[in-house]
Amino acid sequence: MLDKSYLSENKELDINFREKRLGKTILELKNVSKKYDNNLLFQDFSHIFQKQERIGILGPNGCGKTTLLKIITGEIEPSSGSIKVGINTKFAYFKQEKHNFDPQQSVLEFVKEKAEHIRTKDGILHSASEMLQKFLFDKKMQQNKLSSLSGGEKKRLFLLSSLMFGSNFIILDEPTNDLDIKTLEILEDYLDTFRGCILVVSHDRYFLDRVTDHLFIFENDKIRKFPGNYSDYLLVKRYRDAEKKEKDKEPKKVIQKNMHSSQKLSYNEKRELEQLEKQIPELEKQLQNLEIKIETEAATLSASDFSEISQQQQQLQKELEEAETRWLELQEKV
Predict the structure, then answer these.
(1) Which of 9, 117, 179, 304 falls 20 to 30 Å from 63 in CA-CA distance?
(2) Measured at the alpha carbon of residue 243, what is the angle toward residues 237 and 246, in degrees to the nearest 5?
């Protein structure tokens, strides 16, 4: 358990900056694709962002996660597709890359260069020095040169400069890297009360579980949407991986029709064969419906729900295998 005692000891850790109200159109992506030469990162991705959406992005390194963020913020163009940004949408983009600082500039000068005063959500106008104190830079540290700051302190300073202008759409690219525990806790508390949209790339399970409730998952050259947080996704993924492993162990059934068999089906066997030919597709459909249920309701399913669905699938799979085996036996007589 992380120690949050500093939050009660320092009452000036409130960073609820004033947010601009989002309009009807926030951000719309339509059939967006990106490739470099012959390297296709993703294709035909569409999404219409709604108010207060909190989305995490998952995928292996090099799959195009940061590229998608840069397309959204207009830093690079998509290879195809369109981006529509709402007139009231204002991005705050916290980047993964190292930021350009003037090493001879002081901490206070860096913030003053962007704004002498910042208004918070409560309407109070704060000086740059006051905001720095709220963000754990005391007056002595404010006089330090940027060159003397640690990597985590520089990240904290850039985080402040990213958030302090009332943005209503926060984009975070690996925000937990190099942030100290205090700054990370401040950021999490701020995002808890943030009323705009959040889009975050991270491999930090705890952070994603706390901040997001939907996911964009990069798989090959597609971006798949998942209705749940990181833990929900891992639970579903473990279940599917285990199910696939079990299926791979099963011997492949070879359906052969014996055209030269002298055996004939009895009347009852013909009726049974007809019923099996209706039963097998129905069992397959029921199994598919359970898969869809997991896919669409993962965020609301409990561990007991997953267990119950798993038992239902096992029973249906058993009935399907028995039906297919009997169907093969009858086909041999045709």
Answers:
(1) 179
(2) 140
Q: Does domain 232-331 have CATH number 3.20.170?
A: no
For the segment(s) 5-226, the CATH number from 3.40.50.2000, 3.40.30.10, 3.90.226.10, 3.40.50.300 is 3.40.50.300
Delimiting residues of CATH 1.10.287 domain(s) in the chain: 232-331
**Residues ≥6 apart with Cβ < 8 Å to 293:** 309
Helix (H/G/I), strand (E/B), else coil: 36? strand
Q: Nearest to residue 66, comparing CAs of 198, 234, 199? A: 199
Query: Cα separation of 286 and 239, whole Å?
Result: 18
In sequence order, the β-bridge partners of residue 17 are 120
Yes or no: say if 230 and 206 are a contact pair by the CB < 8 Å rule. Answer: no
In this prediction the pTM is 0.67
Output DSSP code: residue 227: S
Residues 142, 107: contact at Cβ < 8 Å? yes
Ranges for all domains in the chain classified under CATH 3.40.50.300: 5-226
pLDDT band with cut points at 50, 70 and 90 for residue 142: very high
pLDDT above 70 coverage of the chain, percent: 83
